[in-house]
Amino acid sequence: MKFKIVAVILLLISAYLLASKFGILPGQNFNLDKQKAKIDLNKLMQGCPVKDCIPAIDNPKFISASEAERLDQIKDDDVVFAISHKGIFRAYPQKILNWHEIVNDVVAGDPILVTFCPLCGTAIGFERSADTTFGVSGKLVNSNLVMYDRKTDTLWQQLGGEAIVGELVGQKLKPFPVDTVFWKDWKKLHPDTQVLSQDTGYSRDYDVYPYGTYEQDRSVYFPAEGEDDTRLHPKQIVWGIEINGKFKAYDDKKLAENGQLEDTFNNVKLKIVRNKEGQIRITKEDGSQIIPDRAMWFAWVSFHPDTEIYK
Fold first, then answer.
1. Same domain, 136 and 265
2. How far apart are CA 146 and CA 125, in angstroms?
3. Among 147, 178, 196, which residue terminates a domain?
4. In a domain, 225, yes or no
5. Are residues 249 and 171 in the same domain?
6. Parallel, antiparallel or unpaired: strands 194-196 and 88-93
7. 216 assigned to some structural domain
8. Last residue within a domain, chosen from 164, 196, 228
9. Is residue 294 assigned to a domain?
């Protein structure tokens, strides 16, 4: 465990030294204009030294399920972030996203983002425009990934998908559904799925989890406004929704126990289904669906301190 943490620290130091060599220091590679900011700029923490210090995957390669297992790139109990779109099924292993956090992909001709913040457990998909890709800014708000688009250098909050600093401030990305499931369950549902290959163009040991016991510990690495909210364990996974400006969280453990429940939130009737594979579907009375945000409790409540919790 100590070795893994030391490895991460050495990686960040190396990135800092490389940035310093070229005269790039933390905070110098974005125009942080408070006149084009939706947040207090003091909330921006430097998670790693410079933009792209954690490299996004811009040209993802995919292999078949059988090849991924033959090459020992994936195991039954690995967590994958999975999509089903226009007859195409893809699985993005968490152990790859731990090191890259963003995949700029195109599925059935549609440009998308698959994003993951290891510090918040937020696995969230978005639609994107065809003329831009997204990268890791190196910055955090409430310990959550701050992305940037390479067309305008606008900073975007991953949780919520909103532009927070820059030219496009206030705009929002449209959510794209992503399931967070075990590989053994996804491949049973979709044996013809494609799997993100470890041939990413980068040298990483994807079998190493770089954050030690972080997912179980109560502590967080960077300041977060909701880390002291004790209604749930800070790392408990919740599924958060927004209806007409109000927010609610559903404890994943309770959803797993119940499988299905009905709720009325902000005068809207909801049906919430969690199947045995861990897929979540939230449907309104009119049949339309809500795409929830998956997050650790401390992260969700940091951005939505007035959130309700389903009981």
1. no
2. 14
3. 196
4. no
5. no
6. parallel
7. no
8. 196
9. yes
| Domain co-membership, 136 together with 277 | no
Range(s) of the domain holding residue 47 = 2-196
Is residue 125 included in any domain, yes or no?
A: yes
Query: For residue 229, is pLDDT > 80?
Result: yes
pLDDT higher than threshold 70 for residue 28: no
Mark whether 26 and 169 lie in a shared domain. Answer: yes
Is residue 7 pLDDT above 60, yes or no? no
What CA–CA distance (Å, rounded) separates 142 from 50?
Answer: 18
pTM for this model (two decimals): 0.90
Domain match, 183 and 249 both: no
- List C-alpha distances in Å: 200 to 58, 118, 131, 254: 9, 18, 22, 37
| For residues 190-214, average pLDDT | 96
Secondary structure (H, E, C), the chain: CHHHHHHHHHHHHHHHHHHHHCCCCCCCCCCCCHHHECCCHHHCEECCCCCCCCCCECCCCEEEHHHHHHCCCCCCCCEEEEEEECCEEEEEEHHHHHHHCEEEEEECCEEEEEEEECCCCEEEEEECCCCCCEEEEEEEECCEEEEEECCCCCEEECCCCEEEECCCCCCECCEECCEEEEHHHHHHHCCCCEEECCCCCCCCCCCCCCCCCCCCCCCCCCCCCCCCCCCCCCCCEEEEEEECCEEEEEEHHHHHHHCEEEEEECCEEEEEEECCCCCEEEEECCCCEECCEEEEHHHHHHHCCCCEECC
pLDDT at 180 over 90: yes
Residues 142 and 12 both lie in one domain:
yes
Query: What are the pLDDT digits (tens) for 53-63?
Result: 999 999 999 99
